[in-house]
Specification:
binds flavin-adenine dinucleotide, alpha+beta, three-stranded antiparallel sheet, 16 helices, single chain, D-Amino Acid Oxidase, Chain A, domain 2
Length: about 475
């Protein structure tokens, strides 16, 4: 599983130099997603091109090949690869193999997937009460997919007992899976058997089953517990958790591989920092966890909202998720803030627009968008600024080129930490009602820098910080 990828993953694959090998493989190009979900049952599509200029597409991959390409690339890049060796336990200073042999290592990366070696042994798993689902899936040969331009899209169809995915893979194969309530699915599989249960789910999703007319189930069905969780701690003495070994979210938005790949990229930076600059190891561990959790929460919130916003079907499955959605309490302010600006994956707002969003979230988002619009202005040297109440500039380990470095973030309640350059940190630090000219002069003087260039950079940065609500404009001095 994990065949439908996001464009944001391609940026990481490009950075580590493996993208050309992925592109050459002939995987199906994925332009976006088509969903029968939300306000009405009629399918609608959203496209990565709407929000992602660098990678307006992604891929539907055959995981054994995709994983093999990544493995070969790591060997090419200098990693020593040992295959077919199971790890029994991880301890400080290395791992113990199933054979009893020990392998020493200054740092162990636990990437054991849902097996989650460290998290299970140390009792770090925190299960999510909302996404207690189960998936049954298999592979069909033949049948049809959507018409162009949606022929590479993942098709997601909400039906009575949950939702079904249909992913077009190369060679006319379709990956098809149903996500249902865990208790319901487990009981029905016991009663009816897995084959019949899977057949019934496919038949109940009428649009998908129409596409599968004449197709033959070639492999499966398989059943897998698909129960979301997150580790209480993602780092510890001599280890770091990544991918499904660190957290797992419901597969609705195809975020698992992205979290694994981008998490691995971050983990590599953390390990490099911990080994090369031990004095920064603690701060880097903190930043690793914060960045990872921010992504996790973001995708989690998006999936929760989208389950709660489906009105296309009525049943126990959907009613239960609506209630939980409404009972969540206030929408998380940091998520509302992120969605109103530059959201993590870029597509959140276009997707959420299709759902019947819970009223509290819709109101909070509208207020945030209106606030952002109202703050938009063009400052100049005479504009007086101050930091918004509750925000502060904090020293933190920030992501540099392949490692963490000492740097700054702007932090405060109800928003994700914003990493900033030294110039922006100085600007925010000095923003106590002074004009941008005076602030720029102070920065240029303290750093022996060219004043016109500092002034230009300060005014440009202030424009973004004002729109984002980090800086407030003070009334001119009478
Ligand atoms: C129903 C369902 C559908 C999904 N659909 C999508 C999707 O469309 N798109 C998407 O992005 N994500 C999807 N996901 C999520 C995705 O499958 C995972 O998030 C992703 O595969 C995680 O990658 P990983 O490398 O962390 O773990 P894995 O891919 O599980 O890899 C873990 C590896 O560790 C090895 N291993 C485990 N234990 C040991 C040990 N003790 N010793 C040695 N090796 C070990 C395993 O053999 C395996 O090779 C889906 C998940 C589910 C449940």
């Amino acid at each position: 599983m994990g065949e439908s990828l996001l464009p944001a993953t391609l940026a990481v694959l490009d950075d580590i130099g493996v993208l050309p090998f992925i592109e050459a493989e002939g995987f199906v190009r994925k332009a976006g997603a088509t969903m029968s979900w939300g306000r009405e049952a009629e399918p609608w599509s959203w496209y990565f091109a709407e929000t992602n200029r660098r990678f307006p597409h992604s891929y539907q991959v055959w995981r054994p090949r995709f994983d093999q390409i990544l493995l070969e690339h790591s060997a090419r890049s200098g990693a020593r690869v040992r295959q077919g060796e199971a790890v029994r336990s991880i301890h400080e200073g290395g791992v113990e193999l199933a054979t009893g042999a020990r392998v020493e290592a200054a740092m162990v990366v636990d990437a054991t997937g849902q097996g989650a070696l460290v998290a299970t042994k140390r009792g770090l798993q925190e299960w999510d009460p909302f996404f207690r689902n189960l998936a049954v899936y298999g592979y069909f040969a033949g049948g049809r997919h959507l018409d162009p331009p949606d022929d590479g899209n993942i098709f997601i169809e909400a039906y009575e007992h949950g939702w079904l995915w249909k992913i077009p893979l190369a060679g006319g194969v379709s990956s098809v899976g149903a996500v249902v309530d865990r208790d319901y699915g487990a009981a029905e599989i016991r009663n009816r058997g897995r084959d019949r249960f899977f057949g019934d789910q496919v038949a109940a999703a009428t649009r998908s089953s129409a596409l599968l007319e004449g197709a033959v189930l070639r492999d499966g069905p398989f059943a897998v517990r698909d129960w979301s969780w997150c580790a209480k701690a993602m780092t510890g003495p001599g280890f770091v958790l990544v991918g499904d070994a660190a957290c797992f979210i419901d597969p609705l938005f195809s975020t698992g591989v992205h979290l694994a790949v981008s998490g691995a990229h971050l983990a590599a930076s953390y390990v490099t920092t911990a080994l090369r600059t031990p004095s920064l190891a603690g701060a880097a561990a903190e930043s690793y966890e914060r960045l990872y959790r921010t992504q996790y929460r973001h995708f989690h919130e998006l999936a929760t909202l989208f389950y709660a916003s489906n009105r296309a079907r009525d049943s126990y499955f959907w009613e239960a998720r609506r209630l939980t959605g409404a009972q969540r309490g206030d929408p998380r302010a940091a998520f509302v803030h992120a969605v109103s600006g530059q959201a993590a994956a870029g597509y959140e707002r276009s997707v959420l627009g299709h759902g019947a969003l819970p009223e509290d979230f819709a109101t909070a988002l509208e207020a945030e968008l209106a606030g952002r619009e109202a703050r938009r202005m063009r400052p100049d040297g005479t504009t007086r600024v101050r930091m918004a109440t509750g925000l502060e500039v904090r020293e933190a380990a920030v992501l540099g080129d392949g490692c963490f470095e000492a740097g700054y973030v702007i932090a405060g309640p109800d928003r994700d930490d914003l990493p900033v350059s030294t110039l922006v940190a100085s600007l925010a630090h000095r923003a106590r009602g002074a004009t941008l000219d005076a602030i720029a002069e102070g920065i240029a003087h303290a750093n022996d820098a060219d004043l016109p260039r500092v002034r230009e950079a300060a005014v440009a940065a202030a424009e973004l910080l004002i729109a984002d609500g980090v800086l407030e404009v003070c009334d001119p001095v009478p």
